[in-house]
Inverse folding.
């Protein structure tokens, strides 16, 4: 055996180990789904907590009206929540549109904070910190500007958080509003559903762990006070704040009945830029918190750090390195002598992947279809490979920024009409 | 101080460059300063746009076919004094252009050795040419008569003949009823006024040169079927061998060396066929691997050739000579090892134009000039028996495509009453690696021991593994791991399928379907979730 054989053995071990971790999460996620189905929707007992809903918005004129309208329509007492839209250095007509909504809804707790390029325009975390200064709620809810939450979403989130003091935050489910637009949005629809039912529901079921998704979640004001606001260097502020919450000893619960619909990228370019930001942000958070992997007081987040580490470094490295060795072997540049696994095993692993993802789709209305089954199979060869590329690129960009000592630039996801 | 440093470095540079400069010059002059060959060939131009374009190549081939080593140099490249190192010189004048090399003119005028002058006369170069009265005729159909053979109907645009009576036994050029000597000798100067590098003129010149070199031995004629591969039509090879054997026609097979997969059953069957051919008076000869298709270094090529020949001998196949084009003889001897270790060979007909630049050749002891069957057909004999061309020749005949072609070729050979020699019974010898193979009229001897050429069929296993399975590391672990993972994944798939089937029931309960009796419309009743906005 030579050095490449050893590398291949390690890669094979890593890939299969992580595959089995995700199999366990799929089953756990489905168990949680069945459990939730048998439970009644959470109800608020006693006085409704006052909730500050913050909506950071940068040039969101295309979608902001619909979003604010949905927030105003929440099935929640009007005097028990406020909406704070942080119109963050927008150059479009967002300010005018928001003013019109305010004028049309007198008496509602709808506040608009317009920032300029001095106070704002520095990313989502900065916008949230600005909004937070004005927030009066004991609970803080965050929605992205392209969201259309369902009427009861806020009620469910607040009810869960009020009912359990061990919870630091509660996250809802997000669905793809524009999934019918093209194949890419169909891929994203399947990806988001499987991610939520596998990674979020599965981890909650097994370890009471979830990662805040960046929108449609609620958390305690005391947590924000304790951590001193959002980390403005973090472009993945959701992951960052999740780690902070864990470290404070709180749990983050997944409540799939609190649903919001959001618009996903409709073009490859937008998708690529958005996902590159996610990768860079998550790598930042991972490196910032990597020390907790060996900190005995941080036992709770160890799995999450390991999960991120495995996704962004171990699995990625294993896939890329094994692919490189495979092609170098084909080209005769290196030689490996390990036997490897049979094609039958690889095929059954592929079938397992398709079935595993399909299980997540059976939880949602209209998704348990034959066409989705084949789209999942297609995703394996296309979308999953695109993810490898974007992850490699994102990790490379992150380290490039670090070497050049540049702060990661916030890329705002472009919105589409409709 | 700076100046001293500059001078120092300049000196260093000059000293470093010296061996390189010297080496380059030595290489350029190598051909002209190395030990003389048998003959020096001086040509004026290749004349590529004329009918004389193949003349130099034809002369080179003839010299190789006569086992003569030669140094070839153009008149422009000629350096004074070189000619004087030779006892035999051939001057090839393909054009009427004036000669501008004073050193050459001076050396030619002082030259006292034997000279064959071919082509356009240049008395300013060779004053002795004035004694030959030349008769120039345009557009003539001529015949060449040599050694009792006549090669007819040869078209010549510009015929130059020596207006003299030909002596008995000389090669003659027949024009209508007139007959002229093809070449004439005066003192040490032989003049060939017309030469066109085609097979007929080459044979005529071959007779002249043969006498000039004093080679008095009789020539022989053999038959070659070239380019036989393991994937040639081996059934046709066998059928041809049987046919020729039945008709008493000895022949040779030119086998293309294959250095890969020599253990394959296909190769075993190929060796079997070659053994069968040997038993049918067939001789096995080895083709020179094409330099154009072999990119390996000469040392690697040499290793491969050793392996190929050793494998042939191991399988009872005894190659007795080489099949090559003339360019082989102009490669360095050590670069063509072990091909140069054969004592005999056949030069294939080659119509390519000779390469320019000074060059020198080596030679095999016994060589035969390849001629096409058409050349033989166009030759008529004064006797019932065809006889022989003046120099050793080999009729090169492609492997027949089918029985009809084979029959036609056989008829041609029979009708010509050819006297074909058996290559196996000629004197051939080589020592390559551990093997020494000698052939003579007494038969073939390998390492001193006679070898029977009887054919005995050996069964070849069909169960041969064409590609041996590679050896893997951790084979047991991976085999066990593969079985384990297959089991685990199989169980997971079964569990997943159960979950999917179960979830379908859950799905239908949750999003109940109401199907009307005609199954024409389907309505979905959603009682639990909001619809997408």
């Amino acid at each position: 055996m030579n050095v490449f054989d050893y590398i291949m053995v390690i890669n094979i071990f890593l890939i299969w180990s992580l595959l089995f971790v995700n199999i366990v999460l799929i089953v756990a996620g489905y168990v949680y789904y069945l459990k939730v189905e048998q439970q009644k929707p959470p109800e608020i007992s006693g006085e409704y907590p006052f909730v500050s809903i913050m909506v950071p918005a940068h040039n969101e004129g295309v979608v902001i009206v619909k979003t604010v309208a949905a927030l105003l329509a929440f099935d929640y007492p009007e005097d028990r929540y406020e909406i704070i839209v942080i119109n963050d250095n927008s150059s479009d007509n967002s300010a005018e549109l928001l003013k019109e909504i305010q004028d049309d809804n007198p008496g509602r707790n709808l506040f608009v904070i317009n920032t300029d390029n001095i106070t704002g325009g520095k990313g989502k975390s900065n916008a949230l910190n600005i909004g937070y200064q004005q927030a009066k709620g004991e609970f803080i809810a965050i929605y992205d500007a392209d969201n259309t939450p369902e009427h009861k979403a806020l009620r469910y989130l607040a009810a869960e958080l009020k009912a359990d003091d061990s919870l630091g935050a509660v996250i809802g489910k997000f669905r793809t509003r524009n999934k019918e637009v093209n194949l890419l949005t169909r891929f994203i629809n399947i990806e988001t559903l499987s991610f939520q039912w596998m990674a979020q529901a599965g981890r909650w079921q097994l370890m009471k762990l979830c990662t805040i998704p960046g929108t449609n979640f609620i958390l305690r004001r005391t947590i924000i006070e304790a951590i001193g606001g959002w980390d403005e260097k973090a472009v993945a502020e959701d992951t960052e704040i999740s780690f902070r919450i864990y470290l404070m000893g709180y749990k983050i619960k997944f409540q799939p009945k609190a649903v919001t619909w959001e618009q996903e990228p409709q073009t490859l370019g937008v998708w690529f830029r958005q996902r590159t930001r996610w990768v860079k942000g998550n790598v930042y958070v991972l490196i910032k918190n990597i020390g907790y992997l060996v900190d005995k007081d941080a036992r709770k987040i160890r799995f999450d750090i390991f999960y991120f580490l495995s996704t962004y470094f171990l699995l990625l490295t294993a896939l890329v390195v094994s692919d490189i060795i495979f092609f170098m072997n084909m080209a005769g540049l290196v030689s490996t002598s390990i036997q490897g696994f049979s094609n039958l095993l690889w095929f059954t692993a592929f079938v397992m992947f398709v079935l595993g993802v399909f299980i997540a789709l059976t939880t949602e209305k209209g998704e348990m279809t034959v066409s989705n089954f084949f789209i999942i199979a297609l995703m394996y060869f296309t979308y999953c490979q695109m993810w490898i590329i974007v992850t490699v690129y994102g990790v490379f960009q992150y380290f490039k920024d670090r070497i050049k000592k540049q702060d990661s630039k916030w890329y705002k996801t472009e919105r589409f009409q409709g | 101080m700076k100046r001293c440093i500059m001078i120092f470095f300049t000196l260093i540079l000059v000293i470093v460059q010296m061996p390189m400069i010297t080496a380059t010059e030595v290489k350029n002059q190598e051909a002209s300063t190395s030990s003389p060959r048998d003959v020096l060939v001086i040509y004026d131009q290749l004349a590529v746009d004329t009918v004389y374009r193949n003349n130099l190549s034809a002369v080179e081939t003839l010299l190789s076919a006569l086992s003569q080593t030669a140094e070839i140099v153009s008149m422009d490249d000629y350096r004074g004094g070189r000619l004087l190192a030779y006892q035999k010189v051939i001057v090839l004048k393909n054009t009427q252009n004036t000669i501008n090399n004073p050193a050459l003119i001076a050396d030619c005028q002082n030259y006292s050795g034997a000279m064959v002058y071919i082509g356009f006369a240049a008395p300013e170069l060779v004053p002795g040419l004035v004694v030959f009265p030349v008769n120039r005729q345009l557009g003539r159909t001529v015949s060449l008569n040599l050694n009792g053979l006549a090669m007819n109907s040869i078209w010549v645009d510009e015929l130059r003949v020596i207006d003299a009576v030909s002596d008995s036994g000389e090669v003659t050029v027949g024009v209508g009823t007139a007959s002229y000597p093809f070449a004439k000798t005066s003192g040490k100067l032989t003049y060939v006024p017309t030469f066109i590098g085609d097979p007929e003129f080459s044979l005529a010149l071959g007779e002249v040169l043969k006498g000039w070199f004093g080679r008095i031995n009789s020539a022989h004629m053999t038959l070659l079927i070239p380019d036989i591969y393991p994937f040639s039509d081996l059934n046709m090879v066998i059928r041809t061998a049987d046919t020729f054997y039945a008709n008493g026609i000895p022949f040779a097979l030119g086998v293309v060396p294959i250095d890969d997969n020599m253990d394959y059953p296909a190769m075993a069957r190929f060796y079997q066929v070659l053994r069968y051919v040997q038993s049918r008076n067939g001789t096995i000869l080895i083709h020179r691997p094409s330099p154009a298709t072999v990119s390996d270094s000469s040392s690697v090529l040499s290793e491969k050739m050793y392996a190929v020949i050793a494998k042939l001998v191991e399988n009872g196949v005894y190659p007795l000579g080489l099949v090559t084009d003339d360019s082989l003889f102009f490669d360095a001897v050590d670069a063509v090892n072990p091909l140069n270790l054969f004592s005999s060979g056949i030069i294939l007909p080659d119509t390519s134009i000779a390469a320019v630049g000074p060059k020198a050749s080596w030679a095999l002891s016994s060589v035969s000039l390849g001629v096409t069957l058409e050349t033989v057909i166009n030759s008529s004999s004064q006797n019932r028996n065809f006889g022989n061309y003046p120099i050793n020749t080999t009729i090169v005949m492609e492997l027949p495509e089918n029985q009809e072609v084979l029959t036609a070729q056989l008829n041609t050979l029979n009708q010509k009453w050819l006297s074909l020699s058996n290559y196996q019974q000629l004197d051939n010898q080589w020592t390559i690696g551990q093997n020494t193979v000698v052939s003579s009229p007494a038969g073939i001897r390998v390492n001193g021991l006679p070898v029977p050429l009887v054919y005995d069929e050996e069964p070849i296993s069909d169960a041969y593994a064409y590609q041996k399975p590679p050896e893997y590391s951790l084979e047991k672990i991976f085999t066990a791991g593969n079985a384990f993972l297959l089991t685990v994944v199989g169980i997971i798939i079964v569990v997943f399928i159960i979950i999917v089937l179960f979830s379908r029931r859950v799905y239908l309960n949750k999003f109940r379907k109401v199907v009307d009796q005609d199954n024409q419309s389907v309505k979905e009743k959603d009682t639990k979730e909001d619809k997408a906005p």
Q: What stands out?
A: Residues 3-38 of chain A form the longest helix (36 residues). The radius of gyration of chain A is 22 Å.
